[in-house]
Every structure is written in structure tokens, then in C-alpha cells.
Amino acid sequence: MSDRTLDPRTDRTREARIATIVNLLAGAGHQEFQVRRLPALLGVSGATVRRDLAAMERQGMVRRSYGRVAAAHQGAELPVGLRRTQHTEAKRRIGALAASLLPARPLTIALGGGSTVGFVAGSLVHRADLTVVTNTIGTATALLARQAVKVVMTGGVARPLSDELVGPAAARTLRSHRFDVAVLGVDGVCPVHGLTRHTACGAEIDRVMLERARRRIVVADSSKLGRVRSARIADAGSVDTVVTDAHADRDLVAALRRSGVTTLLVPSRLP
Length: 271
What we know:
By secondary structure, the chain is of the alpha/beta class. The chain has helices at 11-27, 38-42, 46-58, 80-83, 88-100, 115-122, 137-146, 168-175, 200-211, 250-258; strands at 33-34, 62-65, 68-71, 107-111, 130-134, 150-153, 157-159, 164-166, 179-185, 188-190, 194-197, 213-219, 231-234, 241-245, 262-266. The longest helix has 17 residues, at 11-27.
């Protein structure tokens, strides 16, 4: 069986395989999945599947036993590279709309972590009138590649799972700035329980960005609406705008709007 179309030398194809495995396990709920079924489903060799599962197990995403695999636990934080492969078209459209909300004048903006914020950054790479302060390594790298946006990186401790710098040094850098706009990606948006993240260290950095910004925008695809994670950032009503996609639950959108949050929906697929 050929691995030609899913060459493990390319991160993107490995991430696509892992995304498929994650979706299969999500469909199985708490049930285990037979490993021997995966090579045919993924179109790769058994050796490649075993390498992928070993990598997922090291990251705490799955548990393996006697030829079976299951999700380690429901709602686990996924690596940001994998998250970029999920809901891609919706995230691209969300990023473009969020970027269009920034006025055409010199601005200092904060860009937080998350795969959707990466798409916002991609729509801003030509803006020579922007100063972007970010704690996300991938976002800074993408903006620097075009050499138009002025980029300021925080210090801090790197979290490989999220590609973010966190901790006191990151917070100090952010507190030394005032932002015209902060754009955040979050792991959960709930009208009742607010904005949440998987980790307290990530939530702390997001909270500082919100505190230092005049205008606050959250970008989140519809899978994040109604989700509640363990670390609270702030009330949902503490932000000015939420940009999501048209698959968002209508009742949740209505509740956000009743709380005074401008909630914008983009088509999640190309016509």
C-alpha cells in the first residue's frame, strides 16, 4: 500500500491523517476503535498508522490497548497545527471578516492564540499601518514573512501544543501596551459561562489583552459556541464583537446579541 499521497515528511498530511483519526474517535464517542481498520480508511500502511498513533499518544490525545485506540478524554485540547485543518473554510472567512473590521488607519492591535486568529493575521499581512503585539509564534512568523506589519513579540514560556508564549513575562509585555483592538481566539463561547480556554495560563494572557484594549473582538467557528472549558477568561458580554460562521446555534447567537455583543455570521462554505 502506497503512502505517496500522505507523505509523512509533510506536516500537513500527517495532521490531515490525525484529524481524520480524531473525527473517527469523536464519532465513536467513548467506544474504542479497531486499529486494523485505520490503514484502509486513511490509505496508508500499518506502519504509518502506528507512528501517527504513537505521536498522538505522546501528546495525550489517545490511549491504545490490544489493537484498539480510543480518545484519551472528550474535549481534550488538540495541537494548533491539527486545529488549522478543521473547519478551514469557515475560519478563513471569519479571519477575513474580522480583519475588515479594523479601521484603515495606524493601529496597535493584540492578536491572541488559536488557529482562527492565524487566519486573521493572514488577512493583515499587507497592512503597513499596523503594529501587532502577539504571544503566538506562528502568527509573528507569518506577519514577519511579508515585512509590512510591525511585529512585537511577548516573552514567556512556550507551549508547544498551542504555539503560544505564556506566563508572567508575556503578561508584562502586554501590560506595557495599550491596544486599539484585541482579537482573540477562544476554546469556548457561552452566553452564561462566558469565554473559556483549556488552560489557566492561556486564559490569563487573553484576559490581559482584553483589559488593555479599547475594542475587543473574538473569532470562533461555530463548533466553539456553547462549549465551556475549564479556564474562564471573562463574561461573554465583555467583548464588543463575536465573529463566527452560519452554522452557529441560533439560540446562542440570539443570547449573545441580547447581552449587547455584536455577533456576525459568515457563510461556512463556498457557494
